[in-house]
Amino acid sequence: MFRNLLSRLFLDNADPASLPSEDAEVAIAALLVRIARADDRYSTVEKQRIETVLARRRGLGHAEAAELRAAAEMIEAEAPDTVRFTRSIKERVAFDDRHSVIAALWEVAYADGNRGAEEESMIRLVSGLLGVNDRDSALVRQRVLDDLGISGQ
Description:
Layout: H1 2-10, H2 21-37, H3 44-58, H4 62-78, H5 82-92, H6 95-109, H7 117-129, H8 134-148
Helix pairs in contact: 2-3, 2-4, 2-5, 2-6, 3-4, 3-6, 6-7, 6-8
């Protein structure tokens, strides 16, 4: 099952119109895992935050969100690069919704209370690849910090 999904997400010759929108959501989930793992500390609180974000984005229950996160962990570990995730997302997710993807990434990055340089660098890369400029990403980050009740870092 995961091999088929990886093939659909990462084949260079895949027709974006033939990819189900669920594949983009799985790519987002895997990208959330990649951000959380970027600083080489993948904590329980980050896993829980990923599940919260996935449940909110997809209207999932706790068990379904945990299952999607576990699947995303396997997919992320097998994925060759971040560019392929973002390409899948960019082809299947409307520009306006990409800001919510960036917000989810910031939310996961701040889940453990640390602003890791590796996580921040990865989010800047992903933002650019998704067509979201640095200014907009910074505004999204500030909104996330406000929502989380964290003073600007």
